[in-house]
Hints:
Blueprint: H1 3-17, H2 23-33, H3 39-56, H4 65-88
Helix pairs in contact: 1-2, 1-3, 1-4, 3-4
Amino acid sequence: MRKDSEDLLELVLAAVMAADADDVGVMAHLRHAVPDVRVLALIRALLSADQVIHETFNGNAAGRKDAIRARRLAVMLTEAADEVDVALSQDRPALRLVDLPV
């Protein structure tokens, strides 16, 4: 994992695991802390945070609010990014699965 990805993951983990965290508060914190972060990088960090929480708290991770929050925010960002991508694809080709090296 690249250093910038690790730093973003640490920031996301701290935000979603904060005792007083809620979806709105986490997003507000991230908008303030990393306003120019690429959306896909943030989605990746949120899903990685979910994975780290599951690996660390394997006994009850599925029900942890922080893991659920990370997944929910990743889905929310994905939905919003998809809507923007559809709107922008009128001016440029959309990113397609075939374009990715997976």
